[in-house]
Amino acid sequence: MEGIFAIWQRDITKFFRDKARLFGSFTMPILFLLIFGGGMSGTMENMMASGLGEQAGDFNYIEFVFPGIVAMTLLMTSVFSALSIIEDKDFGYMKEILVSPISRVSIAVGKMLGAATVATIQGIILFMLIPFLGLSYDLLSLVQVIPFMFLLACALSGLGLLFASVIRSTQGFQMTVQVLVMPMIFLSGALFPVNNMPAWMDIIVKINPVTYGVDVMKKIMIDVDSLSPAVMEAMGLNITVFGRQVTIFEEIIFIAAFAALLVLFATISFRRANA
User: Fold this and answer.
1) Residue 242: which region, alpha, beta or left (left: phi > 0; alpha: psi -120 to 50)?
2) Is residue 12 exposed (0-12), middle (13-18) or buried (19+ Cβ within 10 Å)?
3) Contact, 251 vs 89, CB < 8 A?
4) Pick from 261, 53, 36: which is nearest to 161 by CA?
5) Alpha-carbon gap, residue 85 to 2, rounded angstroms
6) Number of helical (H) and strand (E) elements in the chain, helices listed first
């Protein structure tokens, strides 16, 4: 536990000391908010009003997309944080850790927890934009979503750790992760509904863990009880698997199982790659 805590503390300290990283981590989320929130809000709201009429109610597209932007931040930060493992190998820091009495499993878990904590902190910092966007999320719902954000970040950091354990170069890691991350974002319902996709693409949506993470965050943060069933269906807030609607509890269990499985694979791969 002391080894895990030491590695976790090091990653947190590096994050707060790196002002450029702290500032740059908000560039893409804010860019997506400006493009999708500002550019598409009018179009999406008009489509909802014309398609559903009075059932659309006071639909706010920015309120719909904001939880997806937070989930996107968790995904990118969690996965790309594993890049530090490759950098530590290049600078020789990893060799110093590997000759210490700390087990390789503890190193992997410490890295995973450090990446998940940094990602959760960045997601929480994004909450400061809520007043400037004219949104009105309930404070209790924001508090309730934080533990799930950490759980989702653990799962995604385990994915990044798995790639970092088998890829040797920084360039190779960045290229591979970019190819993986972008489809996970766009096929998760974070930025637009994904309920009318082609059959082959719908399969990718259903096996994408970010899909369930985004859905849980939206259902916790948005007052879904005030939305009509037609709006819920139009915005893809009713995920069905094999014709059965998935509940929030089942989605959380799926993310937890995915996190446990990825951490297991990552630690095994990390142990073999650094044996």
Assistant:
1) left
2) middle
3) no
4) 261
5) 19
6) 14, 2
Give the model confidence (pLDDT) of 195-238 as tens digits: 777 888 888 888 999 999 999 998 898 877 776 676 677 676 77
Token pair for residue 172?
A: 């190779």
Would you give the DSSP letter of residue 57?
-
Residue 270: C-alpha distances to residues 81, 85, 200, 260 (Å): 15, 10, 33, 15
Beta bridge partners of 244: 241
- One-letter identity of residue 9: Q
Angle at 52 between CA 49 and CA 53, to 5 degrees: 60
Residue pair 116/146 in contact (Cβ under 8 Å)? The answer is no
Q: Which phi and psi angles does 13 have, rounded to 5°?
A: -65, -45
Contacts of 101 (CB under 8 A, 6+ apart): 3
Look at the chain and report how many structural domains it folds into: 1
Residue 233 carries which side chain, given as an amino acid letter?
Answer: E
Q: What's the mean per-residue pLDDT of the chain? A: 79
| Angle subtended at Cα 136 by Cα 230 and Cα 145, rounded to the nearest 5 degrees | 80
Structure tokens at 219: 């259902």
Structure token digits, residue 171: 């360039």
Domain that holds residue 32: 2-273
